[in-house]
Amino acid sequence: MRNIPEDFDDSPQINIVPMIDVIFAILTFFIMASLFLTRSEGLPVNLPQAQTAQSQTQSKITVTINQQGDVFLDRQLLPVETLAERVTPLVGNQERLVVINADEKVEYSRVVAVMDQLRSVKGVKLGISTRR
Fold first, then answer.
1. Per-residue pLDDT tens for 42-76?
2. Distance separating alpha carbons of residues 44 and 106, to the nearest angstrom
3. Where are the alpha helices (DSSP H) in the chain?
4. Which option is the CATH number for 60-128: 3.30.420.40, 3.60.15.10, 3.30.420.270, 3.40.109.10?
5. What is the rounded radius of gyration, in angstroms, for the C-alpha atoms of the chain?
6. Predicted structure pTM score
7. What is the strand order of the sheet 60-65 is part of?
8. Residue 87: left if φ>0, alpha if ψ -120 to 50, beta else—which one?
9. Per-domain residue ranges of the chain
10. What are phi and psi of 71, to 5 degrees?
């Protein structure tokens, strides 16, 4: 016969530490997944800062000018001279916002040339992307 002490407690215990680890792993997964759900229309460039920047909520067409001065229409490289004829079918008969994402190191004359091409298209409203 075994000697079992009288104060021996045989009650079951629930260890919640592994459950907390699993919950934090799932939470981390959802946070990381939500970071990749943002929709990026333009190419990554260093935008200049502006104190009076405002968010635009309507659908837009994105024109990007990278640091080398290359012009992209929704991630497709094209010459500046053909920009107006490529944007015209996208605008159609309605007003559309065209946002220019120009790197802060791009020459001013390059941005003006792009703006000039876009202003020749009827129904285009211009916007310039900045950082707050």
1. 566 676 777 776 665 556 888 999 999 899 998 88
2. 14
3. 17-35, 83-91, 108-119
4. 3.30.420.270
5. 28
6. 0.57
7. 76-77, 71-73, 60-65, 96-102, 124-128
8. alpha
9. 60-128
10. -110, 130
